[in-house]
Amino acid sequence: MAKISLLIKLLKLNNYHSHFAVELLLVIITVIAASGNLMLKANLGAVNPANKSLLFAYLAESPDLNEKLYNSLETINLELAADRMVLEKQVLAASVKADETAGANEALLPTLSGSALLKPNPAGNGALLKKDIETYEVKGGDTIAQIAGVYGVSEDTIITENNLSGSIIKPGQELRILPTTGVKHVIKDGETLDMISKKYGVDLEDILEYNEIEIEDHIFPGEEIIVPNAVVKKTPTPQRRQYVADLQKEDYKKVEVPDDYQPALGANSDFIWPIPAARRLSQSFWSKHRAIDVPCRDCQVVAAGGGIVEIAGWQKGYGYTILINHGNGYKTRYGHASKLLVTAGEAVTQGQAIMVSGSTGRSTGPHLHFEIRKDSSYLDPMKNLIR
């Protein structure tokens, strides 16, 4: 009996130690799990929409624990940012309904064809920004200004890249859109970046940095580069060159009229309306335009008063012009003629035909430019004409 009692006591003792070991193990596991959770929770701020894993956030703060996983995290972030950028550019127009009652008072997004435009705004740093030329298909109602605003480039950039004539575009037309305001330039044989920099008036460093060129000499004929903020200087057409040359030329005859000159007939300050066929003004007398403009094509122009033709011929800005000296310091000028009917030194009477109206010189259209001067002052013709 004594032996049996001893065996029972030993079994109870072993049972006690076994339970204690199990409970101790569970406590240790609980402590380890709680510590891990607390550490992960402390790194919760590192979580972002591109990475919702607490484990990755923890590894980002402790890269030495698993370098491969940390490097994989960086790669994933770069790929996600690039994907977002591509998606945003592809989804250019998102359908929206116009609010008819509040539309006039609300600041809406710029629209093309009635749809809200999403301006590309890729996440991440500048290294992720696309620098490719994109293509946009014009929709009904689109304008160059709207498209330029969406892509963040100037209107001139779109016009120049697509060889457009002004701002005229039509639905279905495909436009090439540069990644930034500037000009696409194709490298020519023998051309250097320094030459390109001077051609467009853009700092060389700006060209190197934007195109990520480390060595200036590492460019080859046929390669395309973007010259940021450059503007193409358009070569003037032959007509434009002739027009500019005409504006600058001087080809007239002038006579000296005595200071005491008096016209034979009529009071020299009683001026009549100089263009009988027209009365409407296209421009009045004001500080920047000390004359009146009377629009009329190929209309007869008469002398407002009697006097001597002091100047007849082509003068800069005026085109074909006539200046009549009326004596006592009064003079009248008639500009932009298509044809002159009198010559310098000729005496004219009030109402005599002296020219035919036109659009020569710096003119916006066929009209008579008419001035009245008294000594060195310009007078308002509308206050000094007998009509």
Structural overview:
The protein starts with a helix and ends with a strand. Helix 4 (144-151) packs across helix 5 (155-161). The radius of gyration is 42 Å and the shape is elongated. The chain has 387 residues and is α+β, with helices and mostly antiparallel strands. A hairpin with a 2-residue loop joins strand 2 (111-112) and strand 3 (115-117). It is built from 8 helices and 19 strands. The strands form 5 sheets. Strands 8, 10, 11, 12, 13, 14, 15, 16, 17 and 18 form a 10-stranded antiparallel β-sheet that branches. The protein folds into 3 domains: 11-84; 128-228, Membrane-bound Lytic Murein Transglycosylase D, Chain A (Roll), CATH 3.10.350.10; 250-386, Glucose Permease (Domain IIA). InterPro entries: Cell_wall_metabolism_enzyme, Dup_hybrid_motif, LysM, LysM_dom_sf, M23ase_b-sheet_dom. Keywords: Membrane, Transmembrane, Transmembrane helix. This is LysM domain-containing protein. The chain crosses the membrane at residues 20-40. Residues 134-177, 183-227 form the LysM domain.
Summarize the structure.
Residues 134-177, 183-227 form the LysM domain. This protein is an alpha+beta fold and 387 residues long. It is 29% helix and 22% strand.
